[in-house]
Amino acid sequence: MHGVHVLVVHNRYSSAQPSGENKVVDQEVALLRAAGHRVEVFERRSDDIAARSLLAKAAVPLLVPWNPAVRAELAARLRTERPDVVHVHNVFPLLSPAVLAACADAGVPAVATLHNYAQVCPPGTLQRDGRPCTECVGRAPLPAVRHGCYRSSRLATVPLAVGLSVNRRRWWSGVERFFCISAAQRDVLVRAGMPAERLAVKHNFVPEPGARRAGPGEHLLYLGRLAETKGVRLLMAAWDEIAASGGVGVPLVVAGAGPLEREVTAWAAGRDDVRYVGLYDTAQCRQAIARSVAVVAPSTWLEAFGLVVVEAMAAGVPTVAAGHGAFVELVEDGVTGLLHRPGEAASLAACVRLITAEPARNQEMGRAARRRYEQGFSPAVGLERLVEGYRTAIAGRSAMARGGDTRVSRGDGDSR
Question: What span, in angstroms and rounded, lies between the C-alpha atoms of 97 and 110?
Fold first, then answer.
């Protein structure tokens, strides 16, 4: 089987906060290269915006819906390098869906991983005011602008809403195959009207961690962005309830950075049952997971995947997670972890008490979690599904060329 030549397209998120998406992209690139496939990367970095002039910074929102310079640059590179397939990840804010026009210009098939809900919701979260929201699903995204759903700002939401509206047809016709990272995510997108035949479920894989749990664990761990949507405030409320009734015998370690950092720091200060440790690097994350009684993932928004849950599985550690979104298919309740009622601090507290109360059952859950990882989320499984998706897209484009299908305009038919 000959190797596939792939060009990966990604706008890297800010390095100041943990990004599961950046991690997934890096891991997939490394996995493909290690298997002998040729992989190049076309990327922009959100970190670079800070160094731009005031005028250039002000222009960024204008390029969110469509960046013509990126189209020209990428099309030229595709014509020179002639990859078999382009794999698109995040295009916000510096790349834009113009990357799809570049693929059409050069006649190279594109696949896209949908890491969130940005196809149907301007901020991509399907959440508003801490609660699930589907107001924009399947319709014009005016409610998002009205509510200022991105960064609590109407002005900041406008470019995303415009981009979603004007590029909807471009996405749906310009991508051969979409990778949904969970069945839960796929269901939402199909209901929103996306083409079901091109939406494949491809769970993210997680590399072998190199650190597995050896004993019962020494702490509970929250690892991720310190944000409302991740359930951080819910966790603090649940932990206060647990502490008021005598605790569970192990401390809570909170690792991460984000908008609630100040609040978390103040909450943890002077307590011996909570440790806020800031942002961990990859090695520290793996060690912290391997030393956990359980990993807690109490997200209030509908997670499209939940990387930390699978990282826990890989280390043989059970999870306490919110019983909605992708967590329902990742965590087998009572077998590989526990699911709490979403948004309910009392339910989260009860699950934390339960998972720490019976060490023998906890150990068995950890072993079951590891088996689940090996069957569904290992690098071998990840590679197989990735390459299979590429080959399907390449074959689809070849068949389209033979049949004269004109789904994607080669020119600038939508007069951008």
Answer: 12
- In 3D space, the residue among 269, 275, 289, 287 whose CA is nearest the CA of residue 223 turns out to be 289
pLDDT tens-place string over residues 225-253: 999 889 999 999 999 999 999 999 999 99
Q: Which token pair is 270?
A: 């002077």
231: its two tokens: 């359930």
Long-range contacts of range 185-188, CB-CB < 8 Å, 24 or more positions apart? 185/114, 185/117, 185/304, 185/305, 185/325, 185/326, 188/117, 188/120, 188/126, 188/134, 188/137, 188/302
- 177 DSSP β-pair partners: 111
Q: What token pair was written down for 363?
A: 């150990």
**Tokens at 213, concatenated:** 């749990």
Give dist(CA 39, CA 267) in Å, integer.
45
DSSP per residue over 88-101, as a string? Answer: E---TTTT-THHHH
What spatial distance separates the first Cα and last Cα of the chain, rounded to whole Å?
Answer: 41
For the stretch 33-39, contacts whose Cβ atoms lie closer than 8 Å and that sit 24 or more positions apart, written own/partner, are 35/3, 35/383, 35/387, 36/3, 37/3, 37/4, 37/5, 37/6, 37/387, 38/3, 38/4, 38/5, 38/6, 38/83, 39/6, 39/7, 39/8
Helix (H, G, I), strand (E, B) or coil at 335: coil
The predicted-structure confidence for 337-385, as pLDDT tens digits, reads as follows: 999 999 999 999 999 999 999 999 999 999 999 999 999 999 999 999 9
Q: What is the mean pLDDT of residues 281-304?
A: 95
Q: Which domains does the chain have, with CATH numbers?
A: 5-205+379-403 (3.40.50.2000), 219-376 (3.40.50.2000)
127-128/131-132 β-pairing = antiparallel
Among 61, 67, 63, 103, which Cα is nearest to 82's? 103
CA distances for 257 relative to 239, 323, 326, angstroms: 19, 24, 23
Residue located via tokens 């083409």? 195
Q: For residue 344, what are its two tokens?
A: 């309910």
Cα separation, 110 vs 132, in Å, equals 31
DSSP state of 412: -
